Amino acid sequence: MLRGIRSLALFALLPALVVAACGGDRFPTPLEKAEGDVLTSYEDMMSFLGELHAGTGAFTLDTIGTSVEGRSLVLLHFTGGGEGASAAAGDRVKVLMYAQQHGNEPSGKEASMALARDIATGAFAGFLGSVDLYLIPQVNPDGSEARRRQNAADMDLNRDHLTLTTPEVQALHRVFKELMPEVTLDVHEYGIAGRVWEEAGLHKHFGQQIDALTNPNMSEAVRTFALERMIPEMREKLAPRNVDLHRYLVTDGPDARFRHSTNALNDGRNSMGIYNSLSYLIEGRNGLAVEDDIRERAREQLETMKAFITFAGDHAAEVKELVARERAALRGEAAPREVALVMDYVADPETPTVPVGVVRLETGAVETLVIEAYHPRVETTLSVTRPLGYVVPAELTEVLAVLERHGIETSPVSGSLQAVVESYRIDSVTQGWKEDKDFLEVGVTARRRAARIPEGAVIVWCDQPATNLIVTLLEPQSQWGLAPLPEFVSMLVVRADYPILRIVEVTQ
Predict the structure, then answer these.
(1) pTM summary value
(2) Which phi-psi region, left, alpha or beta, contains residue 495 (left: φ > 0; alpha: ψ -120 to 50)?
(3) Any alpha helices (H) in 366-418, and if so which ranges?
(4) Within the chain, which residues score under 50 in pLDDT?
């Protein structure tokens, strides 16, 4: 059991024969038992999982935290079990899957319950010899009960992965840091409608969508494997199951530019991918109402999740070796010298257009549009040389709290520390535009000098697994750092020094 996580019950794993004998028909999900398109409540989900756990003993069921309104967040763990399992545990790839960060995107939760049932009853269990699967069916129970995107504190959980202020996202990251899974999947839904689309007489018909890592600070080898190996193989496996898988597209309308998913580290996918995890999200289609066609939406999510797990199991040894190698390269001499701070999607002459499916509202016909405003390639426009570390004044308590929540190691200075440091003078702070949204463009002048770092200051050394996250968080020009956020923007005072120093050499 994970440290600090409370077990709901303790059951030994049953032999595979007994588990398989339970049969899927003994454990219909709440959605399967209901009449019509309805959503499963939190209470019904918890009752179902409890009954499935008690009836099969095929997984552990733990509480990893509570929501703002006090609902339990649960983690299911499925493993191969059986004789010799401990010896083989190191050979299995760890996969962490989590659903419904957004409360009005319920199909991932519904699919998670069916997935748990199918694994627990042996209907889908062939992967267990090579995969340790960890499943969080619902990250945002409060939002789900209210049928709203945000949690009960009006926070968008999938924009809280930088500061980790919400209890739900804190719980998710505690699990991630404890497990350090090689593979992660964040399950979402995309809206098919919207004012701009309907004014054009269209709805989206983009199929089931998936995306992998997009931030250039993540291993190129991991990104290439995700895009060129995993996604194509999943697409091929899903086609006979009547699931049309595409790479996730983001746009404000049919005449706006089309790009892939954000480079930001404040979402679940990239915040875990910064550790060179094979990290993905899937986006199933939502309905005009949140329960519309929920059965088919959940089916497509379930099939995609199964294809995802199957790929991880089929390639477990290769995935483990790849991730281990690329994580080792985050430390020491192997770590890249440059860290990207500002980036955006740009056009690519090799892929100038992208076809997308749409539904013509007037006729109901499904058509294909060829989009010319396609920007698929990530371009870095500002990078910085990685320092040895940073000096954070002790009075920046909120900055230090964020680092602590991420599990980043810090070292208070005791005695005397002499170093060559770089300080930044803030020259300008202006409004910019990246990834179709506002962001702050910060101009600085760097100055290098010998300095004595005062006792009580806090050092954040960069030689640790979170190295790229550390640089991204603490640099003032970082597009996805702390400084541009409203609660930290007071650090950006024009014609004043940025309070965090860079250590470039230790002299004593």
Answers:
(1) 0.94
(2) left
(3) 397-405
(4) 9-24, 82-87
